[in-house]
Amino acid sequence: MSQEIESVLAESRAFPPSDSFRAAARLGDGDEYARLHKQSIEDPSAFWGGVAKELPWLRPFDEVLTGPDGAQSRGPGVEWFRGGEINASHVCLDQHLDTERANKTALIWEGEPGDNRTFTYAELHTEVCRFANVLKARGIGKGDRVAIYMPMIPEAAMAMLACARIGAIHSVVFGGFSAASLQDRIADGDCCAVITADGGWRRGSVLPLKPAVDEAIKDQPRVKTVLCVKRTENAVAWDPARDVWLHEALEGVDAECAPEPMQSEDVLFLLYTSGSTGKPKGIVHSTAGYLVGAYLSTKYVFDLQEDDVYWCTADVGWITGHSYIVYGPLANGATMVMYEGAPNAPHEGRFWELCEKHGVTIFYTAPTAIRAFMKWGDEHVERHDLSKLRLLGTVGEPINPSAWMWYRDKVGGGRCPIVDTWWQTETGSIMLTPIPGVSATKPGSATLPFFGVDAVILDEEGREVPDGMGGLLALRRPWPSMLRGIWGDEKRFLETYWSKWPLTYFPGDGARKDAEGNFWILGRVDDVLNVSGHRLSTMEIESALVSHDAVVEAAVVARPDDLTGEAIVAFVIPQGEAGEAEAVAQALKDHVAQEIGKLARPAEIRVTTRLPKTRSGKIMRRLLRAIAAGEEITQDTTTLEDSTILDELRSGPKA
Ligand code: WT7
Q1: pTM for this one?
Q2: What's 19-92+287-482+507-523's CATH class?
C-alpha cells in the first residue's frame, strides 16, 4: 500500500469547473455550498428535515433523527424521519403526475439487438400499478421478500417499483450470478417469489435466466411464484402451478393500485454484497432515509436539470443501479437511458452511438469500462457526436489518473467535469464526491465529503492520522441512507461495521486525505477483491474451488490488472499429483464461473503443494498477493511456519 500512496502523491493537477458550467449549475456558488455543507454537519436535523420535505409524504414525519441520544445519536440503531409514512413508487412516479412531468419521458430503453421502448412518467406509472396488481393477485404483500433476477429491460425497474408499491421487499440478484449464488440469496432472504425473464441479450446471444431460477429453487418450497417476462423467446421449462408469464398475468389487470403507506424505517430492499468471511451479506435499506439520500445526491452530484438526458451504465443488480438508475433519477423526475447489452456489442462504439442517438448529457460509468474503451481505441469515440455531454461520472473503484485524463479529454472533450463518486452498497448513496459546479476535481481523487458526511482518516486505535498519510476511512456521523442491518444477522452487522471504533462506521477501505481535504481511496483493506468495480469475497471463490473434486485447498488473491482493476489469482493444492490439477486448470476456472458467475472466474490458477500459513494456521494472503503480482517479497516472513514454501510458490507452475 505504501507504494500506492507514493504514486498518488505525485498527482497535482486540478480542474476547477468552467465559468459557463458554474453559471448554469444548480449549485455553482462556493459560499452557498459552504453554508449548506456547514449546516448539514452542524445541524443535521435542520438540513435533512428540509431535504426530506421536498419529497411527497403520505404522512409527515415527527422527528428527523432519533436514537438513544435523540437528535445527537450516532452509530447503529439510529432512526430517520420517525412517524412519517412514505412510499417509494409514489415518490418516483405519482408525485410527477399532476405536473408537466406527467408526459415527460422517464425512460428511454435500448435492447442490445437495437429494439427500443420509451415510457413517459404517466406510462411508467400505469405499468407499475398493473405489475403491482399482478403481485397482489399472487398473494404477495407487505414485508414479503421477492427476488428479482432480470436482464436490463424496463421490467427490471418496474418489478422493483411494483414491489415498493405494495410494500414487498425486493432483493435484486445480478443476472450474471449463477444458479447456486441465486439459490443462496433466495434462501437467506426467505423469498416467496422470483421475478425473472426467459433470458436477456448479451453479446449477440441469449443469456438464459429462467433455467437458473428453476435450478436455484428446486429445493425451495417457499417460492410459490415465478413471474417470467418473455424477452428472448428461448424454450423454458414450465411448472404451471408456480410459473406465470407476466404478459398473460397482465391481461385485464386494473391500472389503479394505491401505494402502500410505509413507515420511514420499513425495509425497502435487501441487496447482497460480499464480505471477507462467510456467506454474502444481505444489506438492509430503509424506505425514507434511503430515498432522501438517493434523491439529494442525484440532484447535486449530477447537477440534474429538467432537460437533461441521464445515463448510468450500471446493472440494476448492483447498488448503483438501485440508487442511480431507479430511485434517485425517478425521484427527481429525470429522463434516463437504460441499455440491455454489452458495451462492445455489436461494436466497440455502442455506448457512444447511444449517447449521440439519445442526446445524453450526463454519463455515469465505471473505471473498468473506461479502461476497456481506452484499449478499444479513440476512433470509436471520435466517430460520434458527443457534444451534448456536459457531465461525466465514475464509480466502483479507484480510477487511475491516466484513465481519468482520457475520459476527460476524449469523452468529455475537455469541457465536462468528472465526478468520481466513492460509496458502497452499505452507504446507499454517494458519500465522497465533487460538487460539479463548485469543486476543483483531481484525477484519481473522490475529493470531498457530500452533505452530512463526516469522513476522516483514522488509525486502528481511532486516532486521526495527519494529512497525506494513509489510514482507514471512517464515517463519524449517521446519514439517512445508511444500511440498517444485515438481514438476519445483527451480530455480524455490529462486528463488521461498528466494532473497530466506538459509534463510528468502518467501510473497510484504506484512504488518505491531502492538505486541501481531498480524499484519495487506496482500495479495500480486507480480503475482498474488487473485480471490474464489484466486490467479490475470496472466501466464496475459495469454497467454489474446493467444491471441485480436484482441489484440496485453495487461496485466492488479487493482482493488479489493467482492465479489470484486479484480476483473480487462485493458488490451489491439488488432490493427488500436481500434474493433474494443471490439466484441470481450465475446468477449475469454468467451475468457479459456473458456481458463482463469470465475474468470479480466476484469471490464473497456480498449482502448489503448500500454502504460506502463520503458526496459528492463517493463510498469509499478503505474501500470496506479492507473489501473484510478481513482486519481491520485502515483508516480514518470520511468522511464516515454513519459509521454503515461498520458493516453491514463486517458481511453481502456472496455468
Ligand atoms: C467498494 C464498494 C458503490 C457502487 C459500486 C460498488 C470501491 C466504490 C469508488 C471510488 C475508489 C471505490 C470501494 C468501496 N469503490 N467507488 N469512486 N473510488 N473506490 O459498490 O460493491 O458495495 O463496493 O467499491 O472499495 O468500499 P460495492
Answers
A1: 0.90
A2: alpha beta
